[in-house]
């Protein structure tokens, strides 16, 4: 099969003329290139389709990887390396009226252990499979502005145990802590004080201090904001919607999870000591789970890490297949045009002209594929947004993907194009 490689006018490039001359030469190259591609529609179409699919998938895969990376780097605001979680289960149910007394005794026991900085009992925890939420409003009976807030039951040692930082106000005092059984047995629970996170404070009282203001957690009973913490996250963290970032602490002792804070180097020893101490109090109780918060974080993000690595593998595989396809097609075309390359070299074409011809040809194919792929990337992103509630694809990924594929195409075609440019005229004509 013989194909025209370049017009005779391109036998020698102009020595001067700068950018305009180079552009003129490229435009003259386009005609024989387009003529060749028309005669090889199927092969050219396959490369365009391959580049388009790679662009569509890789662009969205990179976005998913970045999304997962943001998840992995999310800050809980807690002293994670120092916190140990203990979960108890008894063989018989504890009467509700006795739960508060048992919890107080357990906490006193844990706080007396060597190396313990603080201990508390909570109803929910970040990286833990639970979540408690309430509607909170600025007016009684859910009138006015209302948002869904993550609800932490806390005592006076929750702040030091979690390592949370107060930006305004104070912590709860011991005499403010209520019994969850008594509070939630009432039809209209009354909570006198509440600590909220800064996100909720800014939502309810933008541009003003929330300290000393009242909010309504349950019906018509007002609660006074006595403290504002810098970071108190939703227990599901990144899986919560943006409006789910609101959180508050109620002065109520409840829940079924004990948290103990100690130095990171003493965590394993503390787990053994705390387990033995709690089980010694009541032989019917068993510590079913005892883990550090660091271990819980690793387990919580295991799926996100796997997804990021999977997407990275898909990107690498697609880019490799695309590069190999370009190399294969270019090598095939060089073999088909060996005699014509020899003819052009015999007429005075330089190695640079032969190299430029194949690079320009590849640039046309990849540009067409990229244009189709970018449109496909936006369409796929819209579908993912509707089906899986993923964030919109940022526009910056479009030029990044385009440049990456342009560079990949030029690098991939360089080897066969260089081999074609180095063919000796006599050997090419004999071939």
3D architecture notes:
- The protein is built from 13 helices and 13 strands.
- Strands 3, 4, 5, 7, 8, 9 and 10 form a seven-stranded mixed sheet that branches. Strands 2-12-1-13 form a four-stranded antiparallel sheet. Strands 6-11 form a two-stranded parallel ribbon.
- It has two domains: 17-72 and 303-430, no CATH class; 93-283, no CATH class.
- The longest helix has 38 residues, at 351-388.
- With 431 residues, it is α+β, with helices and mostly antiparallel strands.
Low-confidence stretches: 1-16
Give Rg in angstroms: 34 Å
What portion of the residues fall into strands of 2 or more residues? 15-25%
- What is the molecular shape? elongated
What count of helical segments does DSSP give? 13
Question: Into which percent range does the helicity of residues fall?
Answer: 40-55%
What is the string of SSEs from the N terminus onward?
HHEHEEEHEEHEHEEEEEHEHHHHHH
Mean pLDDT: 85
Number of strands: 13
How far the N terminus sits from the C terminus, by CA atoms, comes to 13 Å
Structurally, the number of domains stands at 2
Q: How can the largest sheet be summarized?
A: 7 strands, mixed
Going by helix content, strand content and strand pairing, the class is alpha+beta
């Amino acid at each position: 099969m013989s194909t025209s490689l370049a017009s005779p006018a391109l036998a020698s490039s102009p020595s001067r003329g700068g950018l305009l001359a180079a552009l003129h030469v490229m435009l003259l190259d386009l005609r024989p290139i387009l003529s060749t591609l028309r005669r090889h529609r199927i092969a050219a179409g396959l490369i365009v389709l391959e580049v388009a699919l790679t662009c569509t998938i890789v662009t969205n895969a990179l976005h998913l990887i970045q999304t997962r990376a943001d998840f992995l780097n999310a800050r809980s605001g807690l002293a994670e390396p120092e916190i140990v979680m203990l979960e108890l289960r008894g063989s018989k149910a504890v009467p509700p009226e006795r739960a508060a007394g048992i919890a107080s005794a357990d906490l006193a026991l844990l706080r007396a252990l060597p190396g313990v900085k603080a201990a508390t009992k909570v109803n929910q925890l970040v990286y833990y499979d639970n979540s408690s939420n309430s509607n909170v409003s600025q007016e009684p009976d859910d009138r006015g502005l209302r948002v869904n807030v993550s609800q932490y039951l806390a005592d006076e040692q929750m702040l030091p145990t979690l390592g949370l930082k107060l930006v305004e106000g104070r912590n709860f005092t011991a005499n403010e802590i209520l019994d969850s059984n008594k509070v939630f047995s009432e039809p209209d629970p009354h909570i006198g004080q509440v600590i909220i996170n800064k996100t909720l404070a800014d939502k309810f009282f933008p541009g003003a201090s929330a300290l000393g203001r009242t909010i309504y957690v349950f019906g018509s009973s007002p609660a006074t904001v006595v403290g504002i913490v810098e970071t108190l996250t939703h227990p599901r963290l990144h899986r919560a919607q943006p409006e789910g970032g609101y959180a508050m602490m109620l002065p109520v002792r409840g829940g079924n999870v004990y948290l103990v804070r100690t130095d990171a180097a003493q965590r394993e020893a503390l787990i053994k000591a705390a387990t033995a101490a709690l089980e010694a109090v009541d032989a019917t109780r068993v510590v079913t789970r005892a883990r550090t918060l660091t271990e819980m974080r690793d387990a919580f993000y295991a799926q996100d890490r796997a997804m990021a690595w999977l997407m990275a593998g898909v990107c690498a595989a697609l880019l490799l297949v695309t590069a190999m396809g370009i190399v294969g097609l270019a090598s095939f075309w060089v073999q088909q045009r060996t005699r014509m390359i020899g003819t052009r070299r015999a007429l005075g074409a330089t190695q640079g002209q032969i190299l430029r011809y194949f690079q320009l040809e590849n640039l046309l194919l990849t540009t067409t594929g990229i244009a189709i792929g970018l449109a496909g990337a936006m369409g796929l992103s819209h579908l993912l947004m509707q089906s899986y509630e993923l964030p919109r694809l940022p526009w910056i990924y479009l030029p990044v993907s385009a440049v990456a594929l342009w560079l990949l195409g030029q690098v991939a075609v360089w080897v066969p194009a260089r081999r074609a440019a180095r063919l000796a005229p006599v050997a090419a004509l004999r071939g």
